Amino acid sequence: MKFNVAGKAFYEQLSAVAKVINAKNTLSILDNFLLRLSGETLYIIGSDQENEIIATIEVFDVDNDGAVAVSAKQLLEIVKEISSQPLTITVDENTFAIKIEYMSGHFDFMGVSPVEFPTKEEKADEVVAEFSVPAAEVRRALELTLYAVSTEPIRPMMTGVLWDIEPERITFVSSDTHKLVRYRNMEAKPGVTARFIMPAKPASIIKGLIDKDDTDVHIVATEKGASLSFGSYVLSCRFIKGNYPNYDRVIPTDNPFSLTADRATLLSGMRRASLFASKASSLVRLEISSSEIKITGQDLDYATLAEERVDCDYVGNPMTIGFNALYCQEVLSNMPCDTVRIELSDPARPGVFMPDEQKQDEELVTIQMPMQVLE
C-alpha cells in the first residue's frame, strides 16, 4: 500500500478523527487510527466503541489498496511536524511496517494488523427516520444547548441533547435540572417524526467539525443510534436509552412580570457580584424595581459583600429573587442577543430567560430554578 497526500490536509483530518479517541481505552486497538485505502480515497477511522468517525481525504499516486492500524498519538505527532510538506506513505502488507517520506527525510515505524479494529457492523438496524438538516442550523442548535447538559451519571437521560423531530420543526432540549434550554428551529423541515437523545460527546464533536461551507447534515436514525454525514465526515453514535422528561410541562407559561436589560451589562454585574457570593451556594440576590436591578453577593462567614446596580425596564410588582450566580452567568453567556428578557412570577418559581427579539423561524427559551433568599 502506497500513496501521496498533502501534509496539511492529512493532519487536519487526523486531528478531527482523534476527537473520538479516549485518553484511556479498555481495548488497546482503540488507541489507533484505522487507515483504509480504496482507489484514490483514504478513509481515516477512529472509534471508542460507542462512537465512530470516518474522515475521507483524496490521495495521489496510489499503489495497491490496503489497510493498517497505527498509533493515533504517534501519527499525530509525526504529521504535525511535517504538515507543511507533501508526504509519501508506504505500508508493508505483511509486516505492517510504515515509512513516511518527506522532502528532507523520512520516518520508519510499525503499525499493527487492522483485523481487530472494531468497525461499524455492516448489518444495520431498521431505519426509523432519514432526513437532512442545514448544517448551520445543527451547529447553532448544539451551541445553544450543549452547555446545559448534565454531567451527573445518576440521571443518564439528562447527559445528552434531546432531538425532538417533527415534520415542520426540530426541538433541541438540554437540562441539568438546575436550568433547561429549549431551542426550536422551524427553518429545518425534516418531514419525519422521530425522537432520540444524543450523548454529549458526539454532539460536541459534531459541533466542532461542522464547517461554514457544509450545506446539509444527512441523518439516518435507527432505534439504537444514528449515522450523520456532513462534509468529508461520517459520525456514527449510539443513543442514550430512556425517555426524556416532558420538558414543556416545566416551562412556565403564565409568568406575568417582564424584565428587559442589556445582556452584557447584566452579565458583567452578575460576575462582579458573584465574587463575594457564598462559595457553598453561589447565591446572588436580585432586588428588582421598575428601572433597576440591585444584584447582591454576600458571604456571611467571611463578612464580605458586593453590590451592583443595572438599569432595566421592568413591568410588574417589585420582587426579590435569588439565583445561582454561576448558572445565571452560563445562561447569559450563551444567550445570542443584545437585550435579554426575563419573565417572572414570584420568588419561588423559575425565571424564564429569552432574547428580547427572537430570530425568524426559531425560538429559544431557557429556564433557571430560583434559590431561597433569607432576609
The Rg value, from CA coordinates, equals 25 Å
**DSSP, total strands:** 26
Strand content: 35-45%
Helices, by number, come to 7
Portion of residues in helices? 10-25%
Q: Main sheet: which strands, in order across?
A: 14-11-12-13-26-25-24-18-22
Structural class: alpha+beta
Report the mean per-residue pLDDT as an integer: 94
Shape: elongated
Termini separation comes to: 75 Å
User: The biggest beta sheet, please?
Assistant: 9 strands, antiparallel
Would you identify the regions where 5 or more consecutive residues have pLDDT less than 50? none
What does this structure look like?
The chain is an alpha+beta fold and 375 residues long. The chain contains seven helices and 26 strands. The strands form four sheets. A nine-stranded antiparallel β-sheet has the order 14-11-12-13-26-25-24-18-22. Strands 6-2-3-4-17-16-15-10 form an eight-stranded antiparallel β-sheet. A hairpin with a 3-residue loop joins β19 (283-288) and β20 (292-299). The N and C termini lie far apart (75 Å). The mean pLDDT is 94.
